[in-house]
Amino acid sequence: MRGVSVMSDLLENTDLPLIYDISYKGTIGLSGEVEQLWGVDALNNAVRMWLASFSGEIVRQPGKGGYLMKWLMKPMNELSIDRIRMGIRNGLNQDFTPFLEILSLEVVPNYEHRYWVIILSVYSNDLKIRTDISVNIKNRV
Prior knowledge:
By secondary structure, this protein is α+β, with helices and mostly antiparallel strands. Helices cover 21% and strands 32% of the residues. A three-stranded antiparallel β-sheet has the order 2-3-4, with helices on one face. About 4% of the residues have low confidence.
């Protein structure tokens, strides 16, 4: 499963779990280490990486991932919009930790430049974090 790492009780005086992830951009900080993300930035990063994953890229779970990518190999049309929405919904419900409630999901085709605009708003009740994500993903056909 793709998701963020959740660490409880690392900080005193907090009732919420501390979450972190490593930036998908691979940015190197001043200390020479890969940039670490915390809280809402970590959740946003993890969802972006999950959206871009292919089937088989999830460590120790070769049948997982790729819920969106298989539809990028199809022509851009209304049926593809519905399938992409369904793939994102099903994948997040089955395959993402922590559980995310989808608050809104838009899939908008840009036919001229052959890419999809995916606008997603999710909320983690466990983490008490909401994040809004907008990504452009190129269609492969």
